[in-house]
Amino acid sequence: MKRIMILMFAMLFAYNVYPQKKGIPAELLNRNWNRTVTTPPTIYTLIFNSDSTFSFTNPANNASFSLKCQFDDDVITFPAVGCSDEGKYKFTLNGDDLIFKMENDLCKDRSDAMIGTWKSVKKENE
Predict the structure, then answer these.
(1) Nearest to residue 34, comparing CAs of 25, 21, 43?
(2) What is the domain partition of the chain in residue ranges?
(3) Gap between the Cα atoms of 33 and 48, Å rounded
(4) 115-125 pLDDT, tens per residue?
(5) Which residues contact 84 (CB under 8 A, 6 or more apart)?
(6) Which of 13, 63, 83, 98 could form a disulfide with 118 if both were Cys (CB 3.0 to 4.6 A apart)?
(7) Is domain 22-121 annotated with CATH 3.30.360.10?
(8) What's the Cα-to-Cα distance from 78 to each of 12, 13, 33, 106, rounded to whole Å?
(9) pLDDT digits over 42-56, tens only?
(10) Cα dihedral across residues 21, 22, 28, 29: positive or negative
């Protein structure tokens, strides 16, 4: 019994001391997030799914993919796809605006696409 209590205490301590990765905030789900870039003219689309994946579409080069991301409070980590390392971005919600600011990302293509304001657009099936 004493061993079980010690093990439970250790697990509780570890859970509270080490930061826990969180799922995608509900405010980001069930929306298409669009960002318009003027040079070259492009509209990016970002969709977050409840299974911690996201879909990203770049119609300028017909790129579209779905990947896993990680959320930790107000920071999202995008995986190292097409880049040598992952990218971390702080995000804030302001009404129907999702604003990304770079925390750490060496990938210029990804940061050029992500940094700025994304507008919420209702999905076509709603």
Answers:
(1) 43
(2) 22-121
(3) 9
(4) 999 999 866 55
(5) 106, 107
(6) 98
(7) no
(8) 29, 29, 16, 12
(9) 888 999 988 888 888
(10) positive
